[in-house]
Amino acid sequence: MHKRAFGAVAVSGVAALALSACGGSSPTATNTAAATSAATTTTAAPAATTTAAPVRDASVDLVIWTDNDRAAAIKKYADQFGAEQGIKVAVQVAPDVRANFKDATNAGKGPDVIVGAHDWLGELVQNNAVSPIQMPADLQSQFSPESIAATKFNGQIYGVPYAVENIGVVRNTALAPDAPKTYEEMIAKGAELKKAGKADGTVIQEVGKTGNAYYTYPYLKAFGGGIFAQKPNGDYDPNKVIVNNAGSIKGAQQLAILGNKNILTTNVDGTNADALFDSGKYPYYITGPWAIDKAKKANIKYAISPLPTIAGGQMSPFLGVQMFYVSSKAKNKAFAEEFVLKYVPKKELQVDLFNIGHRPPALTAAYQQVQATDPDVKSWFEAGKGALPMPNIPAMNSVWGPLGQAGADVIAGKTAPQTRFDAAAKEIIANINKG
């Protein structure tokens, strides 16, 4: 789909990080001053690469699943919580948290808490895999309103958010010192740079042969299109698919124009997009915070700005939110809820997780702290202003493939926008009805 925090994660091993350092192999003792039930724990030796779920130790009171990148940071606070409560806590790396959680929970061997994206929520609720939590109003007020909204399904809160993410325009300031206000400005600048021999192209954006609906959406949204219509209360309506309404078709027509001009191409995907921008030969990259570390390592001088207008319409990205969920089959739901409600809202935890992925914290106090020293944080925040949370309804699973492929086919010039997006709408509706 796109390089968000909790897509498929390549890991070198599925090691149980039972209160020890991520990737460590020697036994460690945890806080011997804690109650005797807070036992000495060990870390399993790294295993061969696998997609299998971690194996739960039946003696552990609280198990948290996350990806490899965030495990060590979360383990720090799991240590504290385990010592405070006098219980055994384990942080485990799952190669595919979403898929592994579903299967393990059905088998009664899943974790108590998982870390993942908010758009998993509808499917998890539909499968009775996660439980709502009671978050006091005063605690809700400490987070950005958008992040709290993303944790809700049918009016209930199902997790505690820790980060938000969205795409914008990352530009190579050596080639494009000024923030573009319009897409047409980017195209003109790219043509100027190519003519001067300073650039190989204009805009890097993930498309691929099968497309990428996450990056297609802003073009549709620019003209009042999108994926689902919204109900009066703001919820997405799975019965009203709008990928082929007048606004969406106008956005699709812009994709066709960009493909015809070779501004966007299906030859660029998640395997080469970063490397192309980091070559220093492209002025603009439509991407998110996940691309920044590689750009820094490539010594690209960059700046971040909001998505521009295109043909007079204001592009707007989806807003993604990362959160901690509580399993409906938690071994001890009280401990799970206590951890997510008392520890995830800690400013220190949210700052530590920011330092890994550089996604703006959802907790206002943490956001204020990091934006004071990291200008990128405010830039991403500005780029996400007014963005709607990505739909977290189960019907969204029916969208990604058809809409992504429609965008790719239009960019490649294979089919006229109206015809192709009409077909995508029919496929999406059919998929939802199969449900």
Automatic annotation (TrEMBL):
What's a Gene Ontology MF term here? carbohydrate transmembrane transporter activity
Keyword Signal tagged: yes
Would you kindly state one Gene Ontology biological process term found in this protein's UniProt entry?
maltodextrin transmembrane transport
Q: InterPro entries recorded for this chain?
A: Maltose/Cyclodextrin-bd, SBP
Q: What is the native source organism of this protein?
A: Intrasporangium oryzae NRRL B-24470
- Key words of the record: Signal, Sugar transport, Transport
Q: Which GO terms describe its cellular component?
A: ATP-binding cassette (ABC) transporter complex, substrate-binding subunit-containing
Recorded protein name is ABC transporter substrate-binding protein
Q: Where does the UniProt annotation place the signal sequence?
A: 1-23
Source species, domain of life: Bacteria
**What does the sequence similarity comment in the record state about its family?**
Belongs to the bacterial solute-binding protein 1 family.
